[in-house]
Amino acid sequence: MTAVRQVRCYADPVSPYAWLALRALERLDTAGAHVTVVPVLFAGLLNAHGNLGPAEVEAKRRYLFRDVMREAARRGLPFAGPPGHPFNPLTALRMCTAVNDAAERRTLLVAFTGAAWERGDNLMDEATLVRLANDVGFDGAGRGRWRVRGADVPDRRRRRIVLGCGPGRCPALALAGQ
Predict the structure, then answer these.
(1) What is the side-by-side strand order in the sheet with 34-39?
(2) Which of 19, 37, 55, 161 is the most buried (most CB within 10 A)?
(3) Is the C-alpha dihedral spanning 28, 108, 91, 71 positive or negative?
(4) pLDDT at position 100, please?
(5) Where are the domains of the chain?
């Protein structure tokens, strides 16, 4: 009997590459992997390595958008892009981190990321986040639950694991035990 592969996908909705990766997770699920999606603050990873994000350097920003548009077209995915980029995803990430169930957390992060990159929704707008949470079965208006103290405290172990994936990569995939 083959052991089930445990895969962690570290993602931030600010990254269009995280959006593309999250849209492809079903392939890993189909292959029998158990995929856990972990929300991370991409800007924190970049800062830890002293790097700027690709959207903060104009030439890289232009390339990033052309590359992502090409890949979205190749996969037949709709692409709109957020109203501004880079944007501050912190509230969306806190909402995801406050969800204890891994499958529900994945659903919410996928919904936020898709809304930004497929429909152009503004993830810095709290009303938009509440609507999106409601759309996937959460009580988005129960905002008090999204402000869980633990969601504001970085998980140092998770940060060490993600930092080990390279100089500010998002998304980052990690196999259990590696």
Answers:
(1) 34-39, 6-11, 172-175
(2) 19
(3) positive
(4) 84
(5) 6-175
pLDDT in tens, 41-98: 887 777 777 877 777 888 888 998 999 999 999 999 999 999 998 889 988 988 888 8
pLDDT, position 119: 97
The neighbour count for residue 75, using CB atoms within 10 Å, is 11
The per-residue pLDDT for 152 is 42
* Phi/psi-derived region of residue 33, left when phi > 0, alpha when psi is between -120 and 50, beta in every other case: beta
Neighbours of 2 (CB within 10 A): 5
Per the CB < 8 A criterion, the answer to whether 123 and 114 are in contact is no
- The alpha carbon of 44 is separated from its chain's Cα centroid by a whole number of angstroms, namely 13
129-138: list long-range contacts, CB under 8 Å, 24+ apart: 129/91, 129/92, 129/95, 133/95, 133/108, 135/111, 136/107, 136/108, 136/111, 137/107, 138/99, 138/104, 138/108
151 touches 98 (CB < 8 A): yes
Spatial CA neighbour of 140 closest among 148, 152, 128: 128
Q: Considering the entire predicted model, what is its pTM?
A: 0.83
